[in-house]
Design brief:
It contains 13 helices and 15 strands. The strands form 3 sheets. Strands 8-7-6-5-4-3-10-9 form an 8-stranded parallel sheet. It has a 5-stranded mixed sheet with strand order 11-12-13-14-15, sandwiched between helices. The chain is of the alpha/beta class and 353 residues long. The radius of gyration is 23 Å and the shape is elongated. It has 2 domains: 10-250, Alpha-Beta Barrel (TIM Barrel); 258-351, 2-Layer Sandwich (Sulfite Reductase Hemoprotein, domain 1), CATH 3.30.413. Its EC number is 1.17.7.3.
């Protein structure tokens, strides 16, 4: 069991972040926020994919005013993403659930204080988003785009907010490479008790982002670091949520849905395992209860894996077994196994309520 670092608990809308709360999954719309219809469509897609919190960019006044309408219909808490113009934060503060600012481009102390005062008035948390590619000039000049620069920026800014008597803070320390991202989060963790938002920024396409995020976010979570997370993908919104949920499941930090155990293809196979696994994956994707299922292509490892699975198939030559909790419930011909297996899976889900 992973022991998480104890952090301050915040609320983004009705979603708890930090403390003993579940690790929440975030994403960000890519539509122009002023396009209310398109933005709401994306928020709804994220909601049905299992997202907990959504972030929307506020680039101009039209975005800010449109966000008020979006918030009225959004099923998810909304974080306003503010860059360069601090006045946009003041405009949206009355109706959003949190503000994200990048200290590297928001301006001087007076502007940050104005944002803090607006958030204080409405009990809104602020996420300090430090990115290695957009550090404040004084830190980049001294440290370059390094882990030390990210740490210096983060410490300076959370202490600045503390000087303004503000502590409803979350922090992210993102880089586009895995080692720097992990090193920054690890180094800052002992220095404050604020919740961390995990992410690798500019992670790339689905393939590359999945690998980078699995290593960095999965690794940090297994060390007890992290309270909320986003998998940044250049691609479809739903993929971000799918990968994030898989990281939480496969680290066993937050099991949910079906965990499919299947053997690699090899010369011992005497059945069409690839086809069977694809069918099982498609037919079980609606299940949200944590469930371990095993689909194995030969008896070498199948029976051993079946002992630890809730429901299992052990294929043989032209036939095989369906098993539940290590006990054989059916011996059938190959073309009958998957259908019976799926029926047992559904029965197991119902049994669990």
């Amino acid at each position: 069991m992973v022991k998480r670092y104890k952090t301050k608990k915040l609320f983004v809308g009705d979603v708890a972040v930090g403390g003993d709360s579940k690790i929440s999954v975030q994403s960000m719309t890519f539509s122009k926020t002023k396009d209310i219809k398109a933005t709401l469509e994306q928020i709804n897609r994220l909601y049905f994919a299992g997202c907990d919190i959504v972030r929307c960019a506020v680039l101009n006044e039209e975005d800010a005013f449109s966000l008020a309408k979006i918030k009225e219909s959004s099923p998810l808490p909304i974080i306003a993403d503010i860059h360069f113009n601090y006045k946009h934060a003041l405009r949206v503060a009355p109706f959003v659930d949190a503000i994200r600012i990048n200290p590297g481009n928001i301006g001087g102390k007076e502007r940050i204080k104005a944002v803090v005062d607006a958030c204080k008035e409405r009990n809104l948390p602020i996420r300090i988003g430090v990115n290695s590619g957009s550090l404040e000039e004084q830190f980049e000049d001294k440290y370059g785009r390094s882990v030390d620069g990210m740490l210096a920026s983060a410490e300076y800014n959370f202490k600045l907010l503390e000087d303004f008597d503000f502590t409803d803070i979350a922090i992210s320390l993102k880089s586009s490479d895995v080692p720097s991202t992990m090193a920054a989060y690890r180094a800052l963790r002992p220095k404050c008790d604020y919740p961390f938002h995990l992410g690798v920024t500019e992670a790339g396409t689905t393939f590359h982002a999945t690998i980078k995020s699995s290593i960095a976010l999965g690794g940090l979570l297994l060390e007890g670091i992290g309270d909320t997370m986003r998998v940044s993908i250049t691609g479809e919104l739903e993929e971000e949520i799918k990968v994030a949920r898989a990281i939480l499941q496969d680290t066993e930090i937050q099991p949910s849905g079906v965990n499919i155990i299947s053997c690699p293809t090899c010369g011992r196979l005497q059945s069409d395992l690839v086809k069977a696994v694809k069918i099982v994956e498609e037919k079980t994707k609606h299940i949200t209860a944590p469930l371990n299922i095993s689909v194995m292509g030969c008896v070498v490892n199948a029976l051993g894996e079946a002992k630890g699975a809730d429901v299992a198939i052990a294929f043989g030559k032209g036939q095989g077994f369906v098993m539940r909790h290590g006990e054989v419930v059916a011996k059938l011909k190959e073309d009958e196994l998957v259908e019976r297996f799926l029926a047992e899976v559904e029965d197991e889900v119902k049994r669990r309520g």
